[in-house]
Amino acid sequence: MDTISRESNNSYLPVAAVLVGVVALILGIAALAKVSSLGKKVPDDLQDRLTSVESNSTSAATAADKANKGVDSLQRSSQAAFDSIGAAIAEMKDSVQKLQEAAKAHAVAPKAAKGGEGAAAAGPGEYKVKSGDTGTKIARATGVALSELETLNPSVDWRRLKIGQTIKTK
To answer: Structural domain of residue 148, as residue ranges?
Structure first.
């Protein structure tokens, strides 16, 4: 052995560990004495109480299982309802979109008719009023005298003609 390592080995660690162990043993003995001096007894009805707690917990577990099944059923039925509502909303959306497209097409059709030259499209013996028309202009365009047009159309207010209004010419 080396003389240097033998001389410098003045460690107090083992001594401190023994002292800590002795203190822990003394504390353990004191705690045991204190617990035994309390003299607490187990109540006589403890078994009945434990049985009651056990039955209550069993019934609570059964109720929880039943509630869980109810929640699962409610979740499934709610999901089915949402799925059917989603399909109905999609159908309604398609219908609204078709109606909007039809309305746009209907709105474009009269504008196209206004842009044409000459008399607006009408049946035989009729004239459709267009923008800027007056009784005199209609008479010239159809070759019928204004007095005859007034006779054929007694309900027409010639001072307030409406675009698209039908005038009889025969």
So the answer is: 126-168
